[in-house]
Specification:
By secondary structure, the protein is mostly helical. It is built from three helices and no strands. The termini are far apart.
């Protein structure tokens, strides 16, 4: 399918933006207070997954990254004896 056959909707673009913001927030949570940032990252990823068309992979990747980042960031914070929130 080419780009002309599949027109892009505004909601698809917003879903992509929210997914990217979720991935960035998940990456930031690895270095800074995971319990403050990751709930918002997960929420953004889930909203993006709901807005995106059925076949898009970026929102799925954002949800998976947020879930893995939660476990990894909490583990890093506990092992480094840094505050979680």
């Amino acid at each position: 399918m080419t780009a002309e056959e599949h027109p892009s909707r505004t909601a698809d673009r917003v879903a992509g933006l929210l997914a990217v913001l979720s991935i960035v927030a998940s990456a930031l949570a690895l270095a800074y207070r995971p319990v403050r940032l990751l709930p918002f990252a997960v929420l953004l990823a889930l909203i993006a997954a709901g807005m995106a068309p059925r076949g898009s992979r970026l929102p799925l990747i954002a949800v998976l990254i947020a879930a893995v980042a939660f476990v990894v960031a909490a583990t890093i914070a506990v092992l480094a004896e840094n505050p979680l929130y």
